[in-house]
Design goal:
Layout lengths: L2 H7 L2 H8 L2 H8 L4 H28 L3 H28 L10 H16 L2 H22 L10 H7 L2 H17 L4 H26 L3
Helix pairs in contact: 2-10, 4-5, 4-6, 4-7, 4-10, 5-9, 6-7, 6-10, 7-8, 7-9, 7-10
């Protein structure tokens, strides 16, 4: 079994917790409150900027041209994802210039950047991999019966696409190329998945703590 497959399979409890999270299920059914999604869009835009920076740091550390090129391609894919969020923001009335990161968002972004700066390129790839693999998984799961016709259809369409799956696979190939099956890799991967679940919780709680 590959490093990525082993990490993914050994953390299925967190994967399933994200899939069954009421925020994700609200996207699946189209019933998620609009203010929850608007908050998520703003927070995710902040996070994606940090994600793109982490890819660029990893690219600079890559010891060969193939790794350098692939990390830069992944950074470019994140910038494209940011463009999608800009269109969401316009549609949902979100000012991305005024985003203040929630604590869960700041923790996740700081963790990725600290890992990218302070660790080797293999561990940086391990830290970033759960985000792309989890979103590909969620998109594919939510698209099992076809793209629904509701306000969150574009979200499901984006993350269930073959293009996004290929980006996730590219990142996992970098994990295999530079990473190692260590206890540190396992704890890093698992912490990233905890951060993903907390990210969804922060958006969900916007509606459920505000009355």
């Amino acid at each position: 079994m590959s490093i990525s497959s082993d990490l993914w399979q050994s953390n299925q409890d967190l994967v399933q917790a994200s899939l069954q999270h009421p925020f994700v299920q609200g996207i699946a059914t189209g019933t998620l409150e609009r203010r929850c999604f608007a908050f998520y869009v703003a927070q995710d835009a902040f996070f994606l900027e940090a994600f793109a920076r982490a890819f660029s740091i990893a690219a600079a550390k890559a010891p060969d041209w193939e790794g350098f090129s692939n990390f830069h391609r992944l950074a470019d894919s994140v910038l494209e994802e940011l463009h999608l969020h800009e269109s969401y923001a316009a549609e949902w009335g979100v000012n991305l210039q005024e985003v203040k990161p929630a604590p869960a968002n700041r923790r996740y972004a700081d963790f990725l950047l600290a890992t990218a700066w302070g660790s080797d390129v293999g561990l940086a790839a391990v830290a970033m991999s759960p985000c792309m693999r989890l979103y590909a998984f969620l998109g594919q799961q939510l698209n099992q019966g076809g793209i629904p016709e509701h306000q969150y259809a574009d979200w499901i369409r984006t993350y269930s696409s073959q293009d996004f799956e290929q980006f996730a696979q590219t990142l996992e190939s970098l994990v295999e190329r530079y990473g190692s099956a260590t206890a540190q890799a396992q704890s890093t991967y698992r912490y990233a998945l905890f951060c993903e679940k907390d990210f969804f919780s922060a958006a969900w709680e916007v509606d459920n703590t505000s009355g």
